[in-house]
């Protein structure tokens, strides 16, 4: 393992495919749709896969990130929140949302990253997900 602090988002292939299909029906054109999905600690994933293995920390590699970022603070200024996803709206002056009233604006300094997520998978949940693969 490169760093014990590492976190990642988790989405199954089936969930990803369904999200794309659902997003196609919602889109106007130009938006980026970001699913609200759980995070996991990489140490928890290792524990779920091989609970009895010894973990060797080898150090972070060049270019590797500790945490994933799906919405940066800069993008959040143009992002709206829906029940189970976010929409990063285009910044073109001619682009207008058809459903503005249905969307919730995000607070200043919002960011959606795997380490600040409110949804986390447990080791047991990860174990069950890995067994399905």
Fold blueprint:
Blueprint: E1 7-9, H1 13-26, E2 32-35, E3 39-41, H2 42-49, E4 69-71, H3 73-76, E5 79-81, E6 85-88, E7 104-105, E8 112-113, H4 123-132
Antiparallel strand pairs: 1-3, 2-6, 4-8, 5-6, 5-7
How would you portray this structure in words?
The structure is a single chain. The model has no long low-confidence stretch (mean pLDDT 93). The longest helix has 14 residues, at 13-26. The radius of gyration is 17 Å and the shape is elongated. The chain has helices at residues 13-26, 42-49, 73-76, 123-132; strands at residues 7-9, 32-35, 39-41, 69-71, 79-81, 85-88, 104-105, 112-113. The two termini are 21 Å apart. Helix 2 crosses helix 4 (123-132). It has four helices and eight strands. It has a single domain (7-128), classed as NAD(P)-binding Rossmann-like Domain (Rossmann fold). The protein has 133 residues and is an alpha+beta fold. A hairpin with a 3-residue loop joins strand 5 and strand 6 (85-88). The strands form three sheets. A four-stranded antiparallel β-sheet has the order 2-6-5-7, with no helix packed on it.
